[in-house]
Amino acid sequence: MSSIVLPGERVPAQHVNLKLGPGLLQLSSLQGPVKGSNSQLIASTRAGTLNHSTNKSKWWVEGNSRRYVPAPQESVIGVVTGRSGEGWRVDIGSAHPASLDGLAFEGATKRNKPNLKVGSLLYARVSLAHKDMEPELECFDAQTRKAEGFGELKGGFVTQCSLQMSRLMLDPKHFLLPLLGSRFPLEAAVGMNGKIWVSTKETKQTIAVVRCIEKVDPDGGGLDEVGVKKFLSKLEI
C-alpha cells in the first residue's frame, strides 16, 4: 500500500537486488548504515507517494513535478538538437540536454554509425544520471546489447502527457494500450519523461489515441476503462 513521504524521510526499502527510482537516495557510508544493522539507509529526496514493485525490489516516489528528472535505466523519448564531438546532444525535457555517443547503438562501429540529423526523434535509455553531470543515453538494452526497440523513431506522432501518466502507460496491466490495440493496428513507445510516440495506419486513429491519452491522464479527465469505451464509441473508431 502506498504512503506519503516528505524530503529527508527514511524509507524502509530493503531487497537483495534493490533498485531505487526517482525521488529516493541511498545514504553514503558516512551517514549509514546504522551501527549493528546490515541494511542501508534510504531517504526520500522529494515529497510524493512512495511506491514499490510487487516483489519490493524497485522503489520510487511518485510526485506531481512538471519537469522530468533523469534516472538510470529509464526509457525516454528525445529530439536531437545538435552534434557533439562523436555523438549528439538530445533534448529529453530535463534541466540539461543529454548526450548520446555515436557507438551507443546496436552494432555501431567507428566506421558504421547512425546518420542522425537535427530534429531526429529517438527512443533511448538513460545510462547515466547524476545531479552534477549531464545525463547520458544509449539506444540498446544494457544486458543483451541489442536494440530491443530503441533507436530512431520514424514517422508517427509524439504527444505530451504528465509524468504520472507515462508511468501508468508503462504498466503492463494498464488497460489503455491493449484496449486501443484490439480496435486497430498500433505501435507505441512510452518515455518516462512524459512523451508518448504512436504510429497508426490512419490519421483518425492517431487522433483517437492522443485524445484517449488526454482523457485518461490523471491531470486531465482521469477516465477509466468504461469511460474510454464510451468515448471511442462516439468517435466511431
Automatic annotation (TrEMBL):
One of its GO terms (molecular function) is RNA binding. One of its GO terms (cellular component) is nucleolus. Coiled coil: none annotated. Residues 18-67 form the Exosome complex exonuclease Rrp40 N-terminal domain. Gene3D superfamilies: K Homology domain, type 1, Nucleic acid-binding proteins. It is found in: Cytoplasm; Nucleus, Nucleolus. PANTHER family: EXOSOME COMPLEX COMPONENT RRP40, PNAS-3 RELATED. This is Ribosomal RNA-processing protein 40. It comes from Hydnomerulius pinastri MD-312.
